[in-house]
C-alpha cells in the first residue's frame, strides 16, 4: 500500500539527518581545503637564505631550462617545468616528496633520486642547494 501523498512529499522535501550531516561535513572540509589561505609548508627560511638561493639559481643558470619567478631567464623558451608556486607542490619530478631536505638533494644530485631524469647535475654544493631550495620553497 502506498503512503499518502502528503507523506511522500514530506519525505522528499527534507534531507535525512545522515544526508544533512554529510552535506555539512563536506561544506566544512571544502572550506578548510583552500590552499591559498594556508601558510607555505616550508616557507620559513630566513630572508638572507632565500635571497642567496635566488642569486644562486641565476648563477647556476637554472633559467636556461626553467621559468622561475624572480630569476632571469637565459633562454626565452624553457624545456623544464615552470617553477612558479613551487612551495605548494607536493612532489618533485612527480615522484619525490617536496621537502627542504629532498629538494636540496634533488638540486645537488637529481639522478640519485630519479634515475634517468633529464635534470642534469650542475655541480651544486650541498650548502648552495639548501639555499636554492629555500628560495624555491618560498614561491607561492
Automatic annotation (TrEMBL):
Alphabetized UniProt keyword annotations: Heme, Iron, Metal-binding
Signal peptide: none
Entry superkingdom: Bacteria
InterPro entries: Cyt_c-like_dom (IPR009056), Cyt_c-like_dom_sf (IPR036909)
PROSITE patterns per the UniProt record, alphabetical: CYTC
Gene3D superfamilies tied to this protein: Cytochrome c-like domain (1.10.760.10)
Pfam family, one: Cytochrom_C
Domain Cytochrome c: 48-140
Record-level Gene Ontology MF annotations: electron transfer activity; heme binding; metal ion binding
UniProt name for this protein: C-type cytochrome
Organism of provenance: Variovorax paradoxus
